[in-house]
Write a structure and sequence with these properties.
The chain contains ten helices and eight strands. It has 319 residues and is α/β, with parallel strands linked by helices. The chain has one domain: Alpha/Beta hydrolase fold, catalytic domain (Rossmann fold, 3-Layer(aba) Sandwich). The protein has an eight-stranded mixed beta sheet, with helices on both faces. Helix 3 links the parallel strand 3 and strand 4.
């Protein structure tokens, strides 16, 4: 299908701006420009309560933000990781998205402000994610969350963290998730899938930018097929949580995300894979201008509600 008219106009404007390659932009400018994109998500809805916490870790402090949709004694919870190629973004950039999910899914959304590259390279964000999960489990009563009804999710790099943590937690055997919500997740840093070539240029997320982000995040000498870096290369997909995986038709990450869904299905994991037509990478963040983004948000919320109502046995350790 042709690109959505609104996205086509954004693509046209981007081309006309003749911006320099990502590798020639300063880190400060890259992060500042990304922060302004939060306006595309629309007006932030009112929440019953928002709680900010600082978690101590071996590397310093990690900020988390909890969004409560209503007044209630205990809630199911979605632990959510923002996108940004591991280089940009924070809990403020994704504030409206988390508010929307919390209100629609009637759950607490916990947004994790993981450390960014190049200051903090792999595996720092993965470590931060696990630290946040342990904190939530240990403080579940205080935070009014049900530690037996935890979902995990994220977009792009955030989807990478969420996917990696499902494997990591399975091996640890100390937590379990009722659902993983992966929105155009980055699952393979070898960049070998056909969509990387098909949509390499001219569809908002440039292949050149992806390689630059990867160079910031991945330490020299690390194998790109390391499963905790590229979860598509994991060897065991059994006993992972059911998944909702959303991809975009015009996205270089499309095929690797869909290949990840196939690996889960082959292992007997229940997966809903939905490729949204007419859209590019990043469309989920554009609910203020794209009706199709609102549809995707509704799908996420309904999938969470269903998962929170179901019962799933905890992990039994590594399979």
């Amino acid at each position: 299908m042709p690109l959505h008219p609104i996205l086509q106009e954004i693509v046209n404007q981007t081309k006309a701006a003749n911006l320099p390659p990502q590798s020639e932009e300063s880190l400060q400018k890259t992060r500042g420009a990304y922060a302004r994109l939060r306006l595309l998500a629309g007006d932030p809805p009112v929440m019953a309560k928002i709680v900010n916490r600082l978690i101590s870790s071996s590397q310093g402090s990690i900020a988390i933000r909890l969004y409560y949709p209503i007044e209630k004694e205990i809630f199911p919870v979605l632990v959510y990781f923002h996108p940004g190629g591991f280089v940009k973004g924070d809990i403020d950039c994704h504030d409206t998205i988390c508010r929307d999910i919390a209100n629609l899914a009637e759950c607490v959304v916990v947004s994790v402000n993981y450390r960014l590259a190049p200051e903090y390279k792999f595996p720092s964000p993965i470590e931060d994610g696990y630290t946040a999960l342990k904190y939530l489990k240990e403080h579940a009563d205080d935070l009014q969350i049900d530690k037996n009804r935890i979902a995990i999710g994220g977009e792009n790099s955030g989807g990478n963290i969420a996917a990696v943590l499902t494997h990591f937690v399975k091996e640890k055997g100390d937590l379990h998730f009722v659902l993983q919500v992966l929105i155009y997740p980055q699952t393979d840093y070898t960049f070998q899938s056909p969509s990387h070539k098909e949509f390499a240029k001219g569809f908002l997320l440039e292949e050149e930018s992806l390689h630059w982000y990867a160079d910031q995040y991945i330490p020299k000498g690390v194998d790109r097929k390391t499963p905790y870096l590229s979860p598509l290369w994991a060897t065991d997909f059994t006993f992972l949580p059911p998944a909702l995986i959303i991809t975009a038709e015009y996205d270089p990450l499309r095929d690797e995300a869909e290949a990840y869904a196939d690996k889960l299905k082959q292992a007997g994991i229940k997966v809903i894979l939905h490729r949204y037509k007419e859209v590019t990478h990043g469309f989920f963040q554009m609910g203020g201008i794209l009706n199709i983004a609102a549809q995707a948000m509704e799908e996420v919320a309904e999938s969470l509600k269903l998962a929170f109502r179901s019962k799933r046995a905890p992990y039994k350790g590594a399979a």
